[in-house]
Amino acid sequence: MNRKQLLSTLLTIFLTLPLSAQSQSLPYQNPQLKAEQRADDLLKRLSLEEKVQLMMDVSPAIDRLQIPQFQWWNEALHGVGRNGYATVFPITMAMAASWDDALLHRVFTAVSDEARVKARQAKESGRIRRYQSLSFWTPNINIFRDPRWGRGQETYGEDPFLTSKMGLAVVRGLQGMTYDGKWIGNYKKLLACAKHFAVHSGPEWNRHTFNIEDLPERDLWETYLPAFKALVQEGEVAEVMCAYQRIDGQPCCSQTRYEQQILRDEWGFKGLITSDCGAIRDFLPRWHNTAKDSEEASAQAVLAGTDVECGSEYKNLPEAVRRGDIKESDLDRSLRRLLIARFEVGDFDDDKLVEWTKIPSSSVASKEHKQLALDMARKSIVLLKNNGVLPLSKTPDIIVMGPNANDSVMQWGNYSGYPTKTITALEGIRQQLGNIPYVPGCDLTRNESVESRFAEIKAPLGNQGMQVTYYNNTDMSGRPVTTVTLTEPIKLSNGGNTVFAPGVNLENFSARLDGTFIPTRDETLIFNISGDDKIRLLVNGDTIVDIWKVRHRIQNGQKELTVKAGQHYRIQIDYVQESGYGALNFDIQHKSTPTPQELLAQVGDAETIIFIGGISPRLEGEEMRVSEPGFRGGDRTSIELPQAQSDVLRWLHEAGKKVIFVNCSGGAVAMVPELETCDAILQWWYAGEQGGTALADVLTGRYNPSGKLPVTFYKSTDDLPDFLDYTMKNRTYRYFTGEPLFPFGHGLSYTTFAFSKPSVSTNGNTIVVTTKVRNTGKCEGTETVQLYFRRTADTDGPQKSLCGYQQVCLKAGEERTVTIALPRKRLETWDAKSNTMRFVPGLYQLMIGSSSADANLLKINTKL
């Protein structure tokens, strides 16, 4: 062998060695190089199959190149979700009601702290499971155009400008930026994701087949796209998620117009696009029918610009390349963006180099973060009506009622984490007013009084709750994948492609639940269980509910048992999920159906009733299977308060009680009868782990409410257009021509405010609006000064649009000048002549005041 042959042989051996045996100086391993340079180098070293693996949301480690595993799908809607204990902040709609994007930025800075800690801990464990990595699919900046949409609770309301401001605060807090958009460290803190792109806000029941047709360009550009544009251009958001549905016949995740022309070419988006979970599968004939098979569907998505898939269709990309549906270079374009993102977040580098890995573990569910949750919960409460009954005096003549008064899980909302402790409404009120009696009164939708006894179950180690042991097979065999303890009534599902617990399969798994029920009184109870696919419930070894042969649809089982106080009842639940939808629900309940007379007898001589009702995430949410009147697939078919609750409120009013109604919901509820029967109405939303304390603070006057509605509250379902109609005609405060129940921006205080006549001036391209605000009441309070505009000659446009706001805290009698400065570009509208969004010079009407209602606005006409 000559010298040249020897060198060639040695080089071949060297290149086939594992990377650990080679020099550690390959370009993609050099943290001094730019992320783009490192990505370009690594791309050349990957095989086709390896490239495809890295384009899946569960990206495995590639040992020969020392590529760590990565999970693209993680949740942080209002706190780190689905990854053990974390601070649970109010649902996003509640946080939007604060109108305080600076506080929201602080919240998501705290959320990203907790997320970084959990990601570091997962990495140190040697295995990174779903929901444990550095990419977070939030915020949801879709426009909440219709209150029937069950996922509207995940958004920041119905207004494009408010949604943009809130979305920017979230992205900057998550990714490691200051409130005003300056990068803090050398690495991105996390990867945030703007979703769902584009034009998405329900319905849930047909989202896999739904097609939006003939959407006016004006609605697209003025309503549905502004928040996405803001997050891309001002927030530098790392990711955008494409939605499930079609637009003009083409699925969003294969929409070249949206992903290429608008997002990348017009807006200059450099980040990555991820599919919603299962959205590529939806291209197939059973759903959208735009691709004949998985290879074609995957190729269509990548060619349009969808870089990473949440699902399993992209595994067919190697075959798609081989048969000519797509080129390997097309995969390289997408994978390059994914690798750049991972380099930017420090995923390949030593933790010593990444400043965010130094965050202490003690920050998770810390005292400081819980205080932030309380601050936000207070600011989110909206006082809708008050005839003087609030704030409460400290009197014993109070009773708490309602189905949501003692429901901690309701407070967690959608896509939540697990708090170390939740302060319910009942607990918060009792902490401040003493041992106030509680009478449930009714269920959410039925004239039943339902009380859970789940808290009387002990796990095998003696702690409160039920122990759940999961197996990634369907016969509970071999080594369990994980064991957790559930301390609340069980409500689990894989809807929205959600696993039951980290590390558990989405499908084809089983579980055994164990606990001992020790009742505190003699009574007859309902052991209530339901789910899909197979369920078996045993008490003291006897099978009392057996749904083992019926598969693939929700099954309900109930067994009535008379129990004795202090006795032990061993409970075992066997559960199997085989394929498709999976769900498991279990509770032990005491039910009764009181007559009006019996209910009033329970209330007795109490003068004031605090009734905490509304609806619940058990009824509204993502792609749910709910069989309650007024709900379908997670959406609502009726926005009225359920009749069972309305009846109880009427009985109390007719009995001469002072009624304070606290409404829980993710969106608007029509409450026309309640305006008559209730002395005060509070919107509490889904208030997070500190919600009960915040509510009690407002009820007692320790905190003066300042929340403002981020959505219009309508009087009736009849006020709403067809749910499937995506045009904005007669929708939201901007186009609704009727009289709302409560207008967008509405929110009362325990004090009052007066505005002076505004003035307007211009300074180059900046418009400055000034007014004076005086606190005309008897206590300190915060007012949100809201600025709206309308182009006078634009008769086809919105009646008004929010363009600025500012909060001012004033002591009793104090007056302060409020100045809102805005760039002219903020007054951009759709110009049909040029088919563009632009500022059109001319006459404008500027409106400033305390809500969007004309009666609450001072107007000034000016030429701009």
Automatic annotation (TrEMBL):
| Domain (PA14): residue spans on this chain | 461-604
Which keywords, in A-to-Z order, does the entry hold?
Hydrolase, Signal
> What is any one GO biological process for this UniProt entry?
xylan catabolic process
Q: Name one Pfam family in it.
A: Fn3-like
Q: Which SUPFAM superfamilies match?
A: (Trans)glycosidases (SSF51445), Beta-D-glucan exohydrolase, C-terminal domain (SSF52279)
Q: What GO molecular function annotations does the UniProt record carry, in alphabetical order?
A: alpha-L-arabinofuranosidase activity; xylan 1,4-beta-xylosidase activity
Q: Where is the signal peptide?
A: 1-21
Q: InterPro entries annotated for this entry?
A: BXL, Fn3-like, GH, Glyco_hydro_3_C, Glyco_hydro_3_C_sf, Glyco_hydro_3_N, Glyco_hydro_3_N_sf, Ig-like_fold
Question: Does the keyword Mitochondrion feature in the UniProt annotation?
Answer: no
**UniProt-listed PANTHER family:** BETA-D-XYLOSIDASE 5-RELATED (PTHR42721:SF3), SUGAR HYDROLASE-RELATED (PTHR42721)
Q: Tell me its family.
A: Belongs to the glycosyl hydrolase 3 family.
Name-wise, this protein is Beta-glucosidase
Name the source organism.
Prevotella communis
